[in-house]
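Anyone up for a design puzzle?
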């Protein structure tokens, strides 16, 4: 594995994914897309593009599911 010289994890997808999962968990394991974005935006300066990329990654690894604009954590 190549080690990245960037010491700030705040722009990394795995870090942002953890924040997204925490927001969803705090909301009863299901949350609206825009509500989740607003909550993450409060703590991290994240663009909509980076947010959707983070959601894509979480979906690919099987951490979340989506149903008509609602994001749910997988068990």
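Challenge accepted. My sequence:
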């Amino acid at each position: 594995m190549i080690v990245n010289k960037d010491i700030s994890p705040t722009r990394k997808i795995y870090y942002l994914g953890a924040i997204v999962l925490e927001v969803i968990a705090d909301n009863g394991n299901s949350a609206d897309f825009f509500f989740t974005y607003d909550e993450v935006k409060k703590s991290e300066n994240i663009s909509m593009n980076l947010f959707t990329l983070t959601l894509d990654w979480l979906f690919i690894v099987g951490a979340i599911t989506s149903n008509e604009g609602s994001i749910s954590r997988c068990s």
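A detail worth pointing out: The mean pLDDT is 88.
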